[in-house]
Design a protein that fits this description.
Largest sheet: 19 strands, mixed
Number of helices: 7
Mean pLDDT: 92
Structural class: mainly beta
Number of domains: 1
Low-confidence stretches: 1-21, 447-452
Helix content: 10-25%
Radius of gyration: 24 Å
């Protein structure tokens, strides 16, 4: 009994000490109770879509090298369990240290100002969170449950220096060791929502969700641009995911120069609506099947009301082939009401993804099955780069491609008419007239696009 009492006292003392440390107010910080509506209104913490909460503010950065990472971490901890961290408009908060935020439970972050990462490449390449999948790193990671980020502010990856120094390299080059941070990453997170903010100039992928469930983005603008014409942003995908169930993106604009939306292995139950993509590689399922002996799946996605402009790809399914790759399936995917303009490959099934020679893909085809796919009401124009071809659905001989249906396809090419839809290795009727890539007329459309 005496030991139990001593143990209880020890735990109580620890709890008090922990509270005492946590209750310290950082210089320039403030904690405002939810009941003080007048004060909350004065500092901009009253939001029409979110109820008042205990609100924490922290000091902002005084100059571009004034790192407030410690203050930010303190503010997050103080707002955790039912509160809100407010980052005020007209102020910048510089983050220069890696942050592990995987302890969250019922927290809101109101981003009305600017959160900006330093571009100290030497620091970040030594201090980050690393993920084996495509050698990914991040500045920080968010995890836990019931996490809401909203506001009219800016999450700035400060990517220009990264673009300059990465120029000429490839992320998937096995010899590449120049790793670039992802702007926003969740890990082991449940019920995460991001609303209203702008994400700017991520050094690499903009968003990556890992081992997470029920992630939603609404009314977000994602942009990546370079002021150096010889060093464009690279691999700055809008959305990527790995082992995720439940991903929702609505009313969002993306202009990044790479994939607009591209769930990676083992992502299920996706909903995309009212998505605008400019200068991207499209709304892609994949890539999957990259790693030897590993089974990947992507399934149950409904994608509607999407505009794809001035890009490399439109609606795309992509999987790996070649030596030492994996296998799996892309299943139950619907693309509906998709408008495409000036895009090289408006509709494409690519089972020879990345820099793999065609001969290697023929020798060692993809083992990713593609089933139950719908392309409905797809309209617009290609760029003409692929001649008259506006859709190319080429299935690997080692895979099953079945129940693939096209309906109301109204795509044209500036290279001439009639537009050509290619289908190779697809089982059954796809719903529209299509040609084999070996067809002589079709081959001419491939080989001589300018003369047609």
């Amino acid at each position: 009994m005496k030991l139990l009492t001593l143990g209880t006292l020890f735990l109580s003392a620890s709890a008090v000490n922990s509270f005492a440390v946590d209750s310290k107010i950082m210089p320039g910080a403030e904690v405002i109770p939810a009941s003080d509506t007048h004060r909350l209104k004065n500092i901009g913490a009253c939001h029409p879509k979110h109820h008042d909460r205990r609100t924490v503010t922290i000091r902002h950065s005084r100059h571009k090298n004034d790192d407030v990472s410690e203050d930010f971490l303190w503010g997050i901890k103080k707002a955790n369990h039912g509160g809100r961290l407010l980052l005020k408009k007209h102020h910048t908060y510089v983050i220069g240290k890696k942050l592990d935020l995987t302890f969250l439970n019922d927290i809101e972050v109101q981003l009305d100002g600017e959160l900006k990462f330093t571009d100290d490449i030497e620091y970040w390449q030594k201090n980050n969170f690393y993920y084996d999948f495509q050698k990914s790193i991040t500045f920080w990671r968010w995890g836990g449950k019931d996490i809401k980020i909203f506001g009219n502010g800016l999450l700035n990856g400060n990517g220009q220096r990264w673009y300059n120094e990465f120029a000429g390299m490839e992320i998937l080059d096995p010899d590449n060791t120049f790793y670039r941070p992802i702007l926003f990453l969740t890990e082991n997170a449940t019920r995460v929502s991001v609303e209203g903010i702008t994400q700017l100039n991520s050094p690499c992928w903009t968003n990556f969700f890992v081992q997470s469930k029920d992630v939603s983005f609404d009314d977000v603008f994602i942009n990546a641009f370079s002021t150096n014409a010889s060093a464009e942003p690279k691999n700055t995908d809008g959305f990527d995911s790995f082992n995720v169930d439940g991903l929702r993106v609505t009313n969002t604009r993306v202009d990044v120069g790479d994939d607009c939306f591209a769930p990676k292995p083992n992502t299920t139950n996706m909903f995309v609506q009212n998505l605008w993509c400019n200068n991207t590689h499209g709304v892609s399922m994949g890539s999957i099947g990259q790693y030897p002996g590993v089974m990947d799946i992507i399934e149950h996605a409904y994608i509607e009301n999407v505009t794809l402009l001035n890009g490399q790809n439109g609606a795309r399914l992509k999987a790996w082939a070649g030596q030492d790759v994996g296998y799996g399936r892309i299943n139950n995917i619907t693309y509906k009401n998709i408008h495409i303009k000036n895009t090289d490959h408006p509709v494409v099934l690519d089972q020879c993804y990345f820099d793999i020679e065609a001969a290697e893909c023929a020798k060692r085809p993809s083992q990713v099955n593609v089933t139950n796919i719908v392309f409905e009401n797809i309209s617009g124009t290609s760029s003409g780069k692929n001649g008259k071809v506006v859709a190319d659905l080429t299935c690997s001989p080692n895979a099953v491609c079945s129940n693939i249906h096209l309906e109301d396809i109204n795509l044209t090419s500036p290279a001439g008419s009639p537009p050509v839809i290619v289908c190779d290795g697809i089982q059954g009727d796809i719903g529209v007239e299509c040609q084999s890539s070996e067809d002589s007329q079709n081959k001419r459309a491939f080989d001589h696009p300018e003369g047609i």
